[in-house]
Design a protein that fits this description.
Length: 386
């Protein structure tokens, strides 16, 4: 099959789709299909390797207020229409790449798959709600009607799709994860014994991530764990880092809580693997890639129920807790009080879970089965809900 994945951008490395969309595409190419990703960005970074091509297209109104946020690109539109793809798969809502993808699918009579990527969650819909309503009236509602199958990365996102009134089939397939080699356990133990233990929260600094609640929770337990630090790492969005710093100062936590610049690649992996606990206090996530990445390097996780990680408790790999500072504080107190070897065992449980259920090749194969069903008919795969 020839498949195009359309996504607004792959240039923000802190955004989950910048990792998950290319990895899905590359894994599908590795299974013998001709795959490309189309996104906005600098055309000079377009590249090809084997059956996989990554193409980026110029933004037509990058310097025009309001229009710059919608992602207009005539070259992107033309390329999708001329592609001759068997399947067009768009990722994300409320931008023009989805409208272009839907128009191309309608014109060619091809299956059109849409992954909301968390953008139909109740908290996500509340941000810029007026702009989203306007975009919906002009473009998004027609895009939604064109979809032949949605893709949800978790049961909670399936619920979001249905709650929004969308009735097409939904393929529930999680994101995949790369599971890197671990340092020898003796080396890891030596490193941990030589530095102060820390809880890590890594990702965009945005109000929907619930970081203010995490800081408030830390204030409840930090006096009982004076050696521990809370490290909040990621790119600032709309000045939220300053709000968090003011909160940290007002709670007199400056000695144990830090707001840090984002890191990527090997530096990010090392930061995660050296963490004693990873914390995700989010209000809503369709998946929570940082949870999977942390588990893959054997770091146990505390996540709120805002992310679909019920299995943390079932797999003995961490804690899945209610929203609110008290619930997070209780989980932090339990996690920090555990002996280091017990936390390490929980992390290894999580790593084994990632290897077993979240490898990219298996995820890509499931999605390809959905494409094949959409193209040729027959019985829907088991992971499709009609």
């Amino acid at each position: 099959m020839r498949i195009i994945h359309c996504v607004a951008s792959l240039e923000n490395k802190a955004a989950g789709p910048s990792y998950s969309v290319p990895k899905l595409a590359q894994a599908q190419a590795g299974l013998g299909h001709v795959i490309s990703t189309h996104s906005l960005g600098s055309p000079s970074v377009s590249s090809a390797s084997g059956n996989y091509t990554e193409r980026r297209f110029a933004h037509d109104y990058a310097d025009v207020p309001i229009l710059c946020r919608l992602g207009f690109s005539g070259t992107l539109r033309s390329s999708i229409i001329r592609s001759g793809a068997d399947v067009i798969h768009a990722h994300g809502l409320w931008m023009m790449h989805g409208a272009y993808a839907a128009a191309a699918a309608r014109k060619a009579g091809r299956p059109f798959i849409l992954s909301p990527r968390g953008m139909l969650g109740a908290d996500a819909l509340r941000y810029s709600s007026g702009s989203k309503r306007a975009f919906g009236l002009i473009w998004q509602n027609r895009v939604n009607r064109t979809v032949t199958c949605y893709h949800a990365t978790a049961d909670s996102e399936f619920d979001d799709i249905r709650s929004f009134g969308l009735l097409q089939p939904v393929a529930v397939i999680p994101n995949g994860i790369e599971v890197p080699a671990l340092a020898p356990s003796s080396d890891a133990t030596d490193v941990q014994e030589k530095r102060a233990p820390y809880v890590l929260s890594l990702g965009r600094l945005h109000p929907k991530k619930g970081l203010d609640r995490l800081v408030a929770s830390w204030a409840q337990i930090s006096a009982d764990f004076p050696r521990w630090r809370l490290r909040i790492v990621g790119p600032d969005e709309n000045g939220h880092a300053s709000e968090l710093r003011r909160q940290i100062s007002s709670l007199r936590l400056s000695g144990s809580v830090s707001i840090e610049e984002p890191v990527f690649g090997e530096a990010k992996r090392e930061l995660m693997s050296c963490a004693d606990i990873f914390a995700l206090p989010t209000l809503h996530e369709n998946f929570g890639m940082t949870v999977a990445e942390s588990l893959a390097v054997a770091t146990p996780v505390i996540s709120t129920v805002g992310a679909p990680w019920r299995g943390l408790g079932e797999q003995k790999a961490g804690w899945w807790v209610d929203h609110g500072r008290d619930a997070m504080a209780a989980a932090l107190r339990l996690a920090l009080a555990l002996p280091a070897n017990e936390r390490r065992a929980m992390g290894l449980n999580g790593r084994a879970w990632m290897i077993r259920d979240f490898g990219w090749q298996a995820i890509a194969s499931r999605m390809l089965d959905v494409y094949s069903w959409q193209c040729h008919g027959g019985e829907a795969p088991d992971w499709v809900r009609l």
